[in-house]
Amino acid sequence: MEKLNFVKIQREQHVFVLTLARPEKRNAFTPTMVSEIAYALRLANEDPTVRLIQIEAEGSVFCAGMDLKAFEDPSVDNINPRIPEVDKSLAEVFAELNKPSVCVVRGDVIAGGFLIALSCTYLFALPHVRFSLPEVKIGLFPFQVLALLLEYLPERKAMDLCIRGSSFSAEEALTKGLLHAILDDQEGELKALKATIVDNAPLAISKGFIALRKLRQKAEGEKYSFLLSELALLRETDDFKEGMTAFREKRKGNWQNS
């Protein structure tokens, strides 16, 4: 395992936990930090025993977005020569995942921090968390965040968040449909979701993510024939056969990811 400067990774059975670990800079990401996140997610993506990716962060701020100084002046960045550099945005990095991901926000999400939070399949937040897009206050616009917001909100609602640049609460984020749930003290809903995902067939879920990406590129008249062909391929897998056997025997599937 390569040494990482800005993120930490650990395994909890079938769950791969990636933690943003630059709290002294409010977890603002540098080019190297983006490369480290990409490296860690690639490890998780390629590991057949990983069924879920969980994103956490150290400190009182989940992520304050881009470290503008490091992007403007590479000498400020703490380069990690052991990690391959990537020329992609965080949204592009997360979009390559073939596995479900859950982002657990325990501190404020600011500006480009949305790129991580909204890129995950599920987003949870503590009740006190605030979300803000302040870019317009310094003469910028959250272009990449807008693309993600449009997956959750109507166009005018998404633009309104970017134009106002004001902050909103976790409760408001839930009402807007950005959050899956607000965490309680026991985090019971999060634990139940993770257990459900880990119990289900990982190969089927992975194929679902791959099909979703391909589906976006298909013409309207090709979509259903494409999906039927994907279903036929999945029916030939060992996991489908095991799933049918487990169903008949009223037990959980013993998944081999094959």
Automatic annotation (TrEMBL):
InterPro entries: ClpP/crotonase-like_dom_sf, Enoyl-CoA_hydra/iso, Enoyl-CoA_Hydratase/Isomerase. Coiled coil: none annotated. Gene3D superfamilies: 2-enoyl-CoA Hydratase, Chain A, domain 1 (3.90.226.10). It holds the Pfam family ECH_1. It comes from the Bacteria. Belongs to the enoyl-CoA hydratase/isomerase family. This is Enoyl-CoA hydratase-related protein.
